[in-house]
Amino acid sequence: MKRFTTVQFLVALAVSTVLAADYDDPIARYKFWPMASAAYSDNPAQCVSDNFAHAQFKNQYTVVCDDIQNKTCSGFTAVSINDKAIILSFRGDADTSQVLDEIIEELFDPLSPFVAGGAVGKYFLDAFNAVWNAGMKNDFLALKNQHTSYEVWVTGHSLGGAMAALAATSISKLGYMTPAKIKLITFGEPRVGNVDFAATVDSLVPYTFRVTHAFDMFVQLPQQGGDQGYQHHKAEIWYDNNMAVGAAYVVCDEDEGAGCSDGFPAFSLDNHHFYFNTGYLFAMTGCPGYNPNP
């Protein structure tokens, strides 16, 4: 782990005391990350069954969401009986060309008004709406009515993290579930919307953690502020290491924390692709043996 300067260490220590008791590395590592990774698979049901001792896979939805190159976006629904949780997972970008389309659109297109509050990147909103309205929303509502005491766990990596933030915030705003029953953990999530949107997420989804890996370059895109006024929502969990079991992390309970990834230049594509010491495609063949306590 990189050595902090005295000032950086004091800033990181100050912000890490706020939510350190709430963030749970094993839950993020063994529950949410495999589900975020599984969304890249054509058979996420295998990872769901491998990672949870008692789970039910519901459906996967893959639809065209990019009117430039007809690229797809995807997500799936499942239930963990042991955890008493409905799972909503959103896939990240399908390939490099989709990343480029996304970046171009977020840089030059005006932000779109978001139903829960604020404004968000048009690509992110179109992607979320395409998957949500393809059947994920109906699945969620059916599962919510079937499992009335359950929480909802929402996750995703990269573009999937942006879609997950929109899903969790919508669920809270529309009163589908109380904020206390919503858990949102994302990985390598880009900036999704403006300052008002960040405030909306902060208020509607109190249990929200953006897990970031060292110098993940996509975490700092789109650029903060700028013509569109992009800003992250809180809270950030920053691992400045290989994220192996037992690795240290810093908690920044603020939208843009200088003690976390914001305070350092982000230039690594590898850091974006590897979380918890595994590549984001590890779930393509299921998750056998990944979770020691499913």
Short synopsis of the structure:
This protein is of the alpha/beta class and 294 residues long. It has helices at residues 6-19, 25-38, 44-51, 96-108, 122-146, 159-173, 195-204, 270-273, and strands spanning 55-64, 72-80, 85-90, 112-113, 119-120, 151-157, 182-187, 193-194, 208-213, 230-231, 236-239, 250-252, 274-275, 278-279.
Which residues sit in consecutive blocks of at least 5 with pLDDT less than 50? 1-20
Mean pLDDT: 87
The CATH architecture category equals 3-Layer(aba) Sandwich
CATH superfamily: Alpha/Beta hydrolase fold, catalytic domain
Portion in strands: 15-25%
Gyration radius from CA atoms, angstroms: 17 Å
Distance between the termini: 29 Å
Shape: globular
Q: Biggest sheet, strands in spatial order?
A: 1-2-3-6-7-9-11-12
Structural class comes to alpha/beta
CATH topology descriptor: Rossmann fold
Taking the sheet with the most strands, its summary is: 8 strands, mixed
Count of domains:
1
Helix fraction? 25-40%
Give the helices and strands as they follow along the chain: HHHEEEHEEHEHEEHEEEEHEE
Count of DSSP-assigned helices: 8
Oligomer: single chain
**CATH C-level category:** Alpha Beta
List keywords for this structure.
294 residues; two-stranded antiparallel ribbon; 14 strands; disordered N terminus
